[in-house]
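This protein record is not my work; I was only asked to verify it. The record follows directly below this note.
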Amino acid sequence: MCVYFVGFVYLIADTKGVQRIRLFPGTGHLLLSAGMEGKCKIWSIEGKQCMRTYIGHSAAVRDVQFNNDGSTFLSASLDRFLRLWHTESGKVLQTFTNRRVPYVVQFYPKDNNFFVVGCSDAKIVTYDATTAEITQEYNHHLAPVNTITFCEDATKMVTSSDDKKILVWEWDIGVPIKYISDPTMHSIPVFTKHPSDLYLLGQSLDNQIVVYQAQDRYACQRKKRFLGHLIAGYACDITVSPDGKFVMCGDGDGKIFFWDWRSHKLLQKYRAHENGPAIGCVWHPTEPSLVFSCGWDGVIKMWNNS
């Protein structure tokens, strides 16, 4: 497998950095970025240009997520507000806050009217997107919540926290059905689901990607891990190719890494971003040769593997 830089970058107008990137659901023809200057932007993949800038936060945007059809998206900011945006018009449809910093946000896969937020006060809350009311609260973590991942056809929800615990919940029931914790575990600030829906890949802060089952016992697959990158405490995203054969992530030194899923062998690594981590990455859902990375240098790059 060979990976090389295609030859263009999306330059972000502000130099404060890009925290997260997400591709439009299904087609991947648009890319959404969350900026540390408090702005969100939509980019055309084909046209290689910014299509719209969404201005509405007074602090860095920590996470963004499209809803299930891409018609709207949520932005979660360090200003303690979440905003629901109409993707095409750029209008703010609704604003949410529980006066805590939202660290991670996920739409419920089966209903665009509900989304879940992991907060700085160790709580997870479900919002009704139409009324802005909190409909459920999950309150068993002991530190800020970093990840929320839906599994088993969205009947289960897996969360991780700075408390170094992983909890598994039944959807819309506020008591966890499983605790995963042992003295050897490190905090896992990022989880990504494998395209097979059978595994969860976690960015462990001891400089390895760890793998758990995404069903049944949610057991750690101790023989399956990916090494070679240095996280340095950053929540660097993980992405997996649509066919499930390759794993990619960035690291705290601005590099990006590619591994083989089956053999765990490190295939390639490249210098991608300067003056900080390669914090975000996504693999195109329909063009398996395209991957994207972003960093705190304020740049989004498109890469081609062939």
Notes: The mean pLDDT is 94. The domain at 3-305 is CATH 2.130.10.10 (Methylamine Dehydrogenase; Chain H).
